[in-house]
Input
Amino acid sequence: MKPKVAFFDFTSCEGCQLTVVDSLQTHTELLDAVEIVQFREAMTEKGEDYAVAFVEGSISRPSDEPRLKRIREQAAVLVALGACAHLGGINAIRNAMPLDDVRRYVYGDKADWYETYPARPISAVVPVDAVIPGCPIDRNEFLEVVKALLLGKKPPLPDYPLCVECKLKEHTCLFHKGGYCLGPVTRAGCGAICPTYGDGCEGCRGLIPDPNRNAMSEVLLEHGLTVDAMLARWTMFGTYQQMETGKK
Amino acid sequence: MANVNIEVHHVTRVEGHGNIVVNAKNGVLEECRLEIVETPRFFEAMLRGRPYTQSSHITSRICGICAVGHATASLRATENALGIEPSEQTVLLRKLNFHGEIIDSHVLHVYMLVAPDMFGVGSVIPLVKTAPDVVLRALRIKKLSGDLCATIGGRHTHPIAMAVGGFTHYPTVAELKALRQRLVDARADMDETVKLAKTLPWPQFNRETEYVALRKEDEYAFIDGTITTTDGGKYPVKDYRKVTNERMVPHSTAKYTAHKRESYMVGALARFNVNYDKLHPRAQAAAEELGLKPICTNPYLNTAAQVVEMVHSVEDSIRIIDELLVRGIHPEPLPPFPGRGGEGVGSCEVPRGILFHNYQIGENGLVKNANCIIPTGQNLANIEADMRKLVPEILDRPQDEIRLMLEMLVRAYDPCISCSVHFLEVKFV
Ligand code: SF4
Ligand code: SF4
Ligand code: SF4
Output
């Protein structure tokens, strides 16, 4: 029997689900290997007997939690899909600001109509079995993870920094061009796509295990760059982690 | 007469979350609402204090489908605030990337989200077996538009190479030529798409309203222009608030807008109604084939207008590539921070309609204030007005049919509800 798979979204831009749709288009064999029973963005039918749940988006209000917990209870395997679910991601930028200010800034005196709390990764609420990092996810990595899961294996994630991939591609390092890049501390796996297109890494795949912070500061010092500017980059996707560790 | 009680929770096959609530007793409509129950996003607040160079990368995450549109509006707002003029090459590359997103979004909507309704199935998946040529064609067009975006911006969604004042990466001549060939080949798929659209049973329903779109004298406007309405309104984009007049309603986390009437419509049909004369001749021919004439007041035909725009975008992409090939691609340095702050508005016609970003940037290069007004938010009041006229007209039909007609109406607007939400959670007051 084909494993039943479902997709869910919380606070997100749905870009990761769209990337899934893209992958399914070019790899239709996946549709033969699994049965999709829920994918709100693409179908009307709703099945509740799924074994694998892909969850996109951050948890950003108390009422998200019971829904996520129900998904966790049903799914044998729960996969975080993309930076919002994996890290808290872009949604967590606001965590560094007073919540009430944020609400009033957008909604003025109607702020009380709406429920919210600091945005967090899904792993802050339930145990997560696998992660597909990135904002958006990398479609090849999505396929790799699904294949590994179908074989009952734990999907591998690179634990070396992005610079390794970037240097293999022989790009001129952003630091030599006066730019900023989080490559030295960010988990590889996207093929260093941002440096490939001329921009520094923004850290959307999260930190490698044991990032070498001293080496990072040395690089900054060597190139006359500021920690503030680096932090501004890191907190695009890493605000939740930065606030959890209280430093970086 | 009929009692009707319809609640559709989480309308499927739209981006984001919306509920439809309709209540009629003895043939009298008592309640009719589109509820937006998307989670809070707070993008405007999140931009405050960030370096101006990050705004487009952060706001592209408002919506994975309109990412290029948000990035472009954001860049235009930033450039207007800082007094930066993008080069001609930058303008051409942005337009090309933009067409990619228009085609991508429209093909997704027409083939994956609307066509299943008309074929009477719940998703595109059963069509793989019953109408494989249709599905394969959709996939081909979608692959082309995604590749077009990736060639210019670096990836399909959330462009990397678009920056304030220019690009950080350029397509090669070989890449442009290959894209050109595929776009020329796509003309056949466009013809087939028009034929398909012609056979679909479009619901008959008309309601006059005001249509709002950007307009330019020299082209069918997608980036920049004058805000123009079918009720005679004309405003520079910096005066966008005179049109939008945002207000909040308790049943929705998105903000509502109104100009001269109780509501107005934005999107492909609005652009078609305002800018029909600027469409490529092939797109005008497609419109004629579909029996679409300005001013068209059937909101279900928004999808047909998207088909017309796809034809236009394919043709205009070919034209832009030809121009780029003649000019040659020349790397240009990004402009430095001008050392001054300022305020600016950027506006684009994203797939779902007119979009505004408005930023204040400080002298330190950090964003001081931000406001984003999104198409679906502008359409919400108009969708509700449509529902209030539609429901009494079809009240004698079976409840399931009413439900489907309403869902199809909401889907025709192609609402990208996740972007229209500044906020969340429904509460009744
Ligand atoms: S991780 Fe990025 S692409 Fe994916 S849903 Fe979140 S914002 Fe969108
Ligand atoms: S550009 Fe970034 S990823 Fe590449 S080598 Fe330099 S620091 Fe590392
Ligand atoms: S280069 Fe960095 S920011 Fe870009 S996709 Fe890879 S991890 Fe994310």
